[in-house]
Design brief:
By secondary structure, the chain is mainly alpha-helical. The protein is built from 6 helices and 2 strands. It has one domain.
């Protein structure tokens, strides 16, 4: 229900704007990883409720992500940072204004979460809360099995 209301009031415009930015970023080779991450952000912008942002290392485990990919993600996040800081501050300021009213608190939470995501989007995925719980449980089991084997 909240996702539908969000989509009709805010989400479609935000997702469309992010898709346009993603398309512009995809023109260059350097911008491709940023464009891919912005597609994840568009998904969060359109339907944010019931979603969670997780890092790729939380999904695949710390050893499941190659060093090249980690370093490439860091470089891409550094390239994105000047744009991300302005977008992030904008979302956080809007979120703070939304917190002023009781009815705006859920909107404020979503806007702050978006602000944190857009600051360093490369290497982040938008998943359902059930998927995030699953990934967290799998990583905990793998961590315990590695501790036992030592």
């Amino acid at each position: 229900m909240f996702n539908l209301i969000w989509f009709l009031v805010f989400g479609w415009e935000m997702a469309f704007a992010v898709l346009l930015i993603s398309g512009i970023m995809a023109i260059t080779v350097v911008g491709l990883p940023i464009a891919k991450s912005l597609l994840q952000f568009a998904k969060l912008s359109a339907f944010p409720y019931g979603k969670k942002v997780v890092r790729e290392t939380q999904i695949k485990g710390k050893d499941g992500v190659s060093s090249v990919r980690k370093i490439g993600g860091i470089i891409a996040n550094i390239i994105w940072f000047p744009f991300g800081i302005f977008l992030s501050l904008g979302y956080i300021v809007l979120g703070i204004f939304a917190f002023i009213t009781i009815i705006g608190i859920p909107i404020g939470v979503v806007l702050v979460r978006m602000g944190l995501f857009v600051l360093f989007p490369i290497g982040a995925k938008v998943v359902t809360k059930d998927q995030a719980s699953y990934y967290s449980a799998v990583n905990e089991i793998e961590k315990r099995s590695k501790e036992k084997s030592k």
